[in-house]
Amino acid sequence: MRSHYVLVAVVALSLAPVLRESVLAQQQGAQGGGVQVGVPQGRGAAPAAPAGRRGGPPPGPAPRSANGRVLLGGATPSVKGVWLPGEGGAQAAGDVESVPLQPWARALLAQRRINQLEPHTRCKPSGGIRQFLTPYGVEFVELPELQRIYIFDIGGPHTYRTIYMDGRTHPANLQPSYYGHSIGWWEGDTLVVDTTGFNESFWIDRRGTPHTEKLQLQERFTRLNSLTIKYEVVAEDPGALTAPWKTGFNLRWENGTELFEYVCQQANYATTLMVGGEATTIDRTSPVVP
Q: Is residue 1 part of a domain?
């Protein structure tokens, strides 16, 4: 029996440094700094570093198709990769004070920053800017024969967004949805996407900037080189904004990563965003899961 206790003590001492690092990482993730727990290095939460200075070769020119148009993926179908936010998991869509919010929307944003019950943590799709701030990044899939581009989320509820490239316009009576209705076209090396028909059941960015069903986005994706896409967006929402809001950030290419199986709530590390924690207050007058 004595030898058993000795063995337990030895194992506990050997695991102590590992446990300390795990706790520290979780604390840093909860405070919005450091690497997010459960997100591997380089997949959505790696420390920020300029493109071409992450230990690999400098960026090359943007890949192009046989007709000379820039590609949003690899140079050939065999080249795999995903796009991650340039600043990792803590990426923000500009300064919160610069967002021209109406008074009610600013009050709601202040409440959301205290009670961080984001729908994304309950496996709801993330539309708008938030789509490009999800864990593990996104993949663009271009299908010229269908005149469509698909954007697949990896760290989400197995959802994808469709961009129609056939010249159609928005339908007159849209059923509001998480991703809305997107139509796109090329302007040189820039993919321009106009989207309307959003519902109000998601956060438009990580911090919870409010929006209404009147939201309309125009996004511009410009592939600057092999490693970088410049993402620009102008939001117009007469229901929540007092003026158009322009923001954006860079997306960085992670070569070799493919879409992989992702179970949204398995081993979820964002429990405080669902049920609260010691540093937050939670309104429990309504169900946690909508």
A: no
Query: Residue 191: enclosing H or E segment and its boundaries?
Result: strand 190-196
**Tokens at residue 76, please?**
């050939």
In a domain, 126, yes or no: yes
User: What digits encode the pLDDT tens for the residues 231-279?
Assistant: 999 999 999 999 999 999 999 999 998 888 877 766 556 666 566 555 5
Burial 73-104 (b: 16+ CB within 10 A, else e): beeeeeeebbbbbbbbbbbbbbebeebebbee
Q: Is 60 helix (H, G, I), strand (E, B) or coil?
A: coil
Using alpha carbons, select from 37, 198, 45, 234 the residue that is nearest to residue 125.
198
Helical spans, DSSP H, in the chain: 2-30, 103-114, 271-275
Q: How many structural domains comprise the chain?
A: 1
Q: What range defines the domain where residue 242 resides?
A: 56-275
What is this structure's pTM?
A: 0.76
Q: Which residue has the higher pLDDT, 40 or 234?
A: 234
Residue 117 has pLDDT above 60, yes or no: yes
DSSP annotation of 264: T
Question: At 42, is the pLDDT very low, low, confident or very high (cuts 50, 70, 90)?
Answer: very low
Residue 64 lies in a domain: yes
12 occurs within a structural domain: no
Give the residue among 237, 235, 217, 199 at the shortest CA–CA distance from 104: 237
- Residue 239: exposure state from Cβ atoms within 10 A (0-12, 13-18, ≥19): middle
Calpha distance 189→191 (Å, rounded): 7
